Amino acid sequence: MAELLDDDEVSSRIPDGWEQEGDEIVRVYEFEDYLRGVSFAQSVGEVAEEEFHHPTIVIRYEEVEVRLTSHEEGGITDKDVRLAGMFDDEF
């Protein structure tokens, strides 16, 4: 089981563009059109599947919202922060 990060650890370690909302970290990625967002969401899904750590992904017209938390641990862990960086690399 991964160790939960406290709020100070989260704020100092999450990548730029990500925000903490309760027990999740969240980022909204903006795109010029819908299909680019869909393609990005697919890339995020593929990374998540490889890592076996699945975010909530919400696709809107020109944006994709990604939310990460470690459900088993009940909050944010190193795994969430690491995946946030990996998703940014896909962007």
From TrEMBL:
Pfam families linked to this entry: Pterin_4a (PF01329)
Record's keyword annotation contains Protease: no
Catalytic activity, EC: 4.2.1.96
InterPro entries assigned to the protein according to its UniProt record, in alphabetical order: PCD_sf, Pterin_deHydtase
Gene3D superfamilies per record: Transcriptional coactivator/pterin dehydratase
Annotated catalysed reactions: (4aS,6R)-4a-hydroxy-L-erythro-5,6,7,8-tetrahydrobiopterin = (6R)-L-erythro-6,7-dihydrobiopterin + H2O
Presence of the UniProt keyword Lyase in the record: yes
A GO molecular function held by the record: 4-alpha-hydroxytetrahydrobiopterin dehydratase activity
Keywords assigned: Lyase
Family stated for the protein in its record: Belongs to the pterin-4-alpha-carbinolamine dehydratase family.
Protein known as: 4a-hydroxytetrahydrobiopterin dehydratase
Protein's organism: Halobium palmae
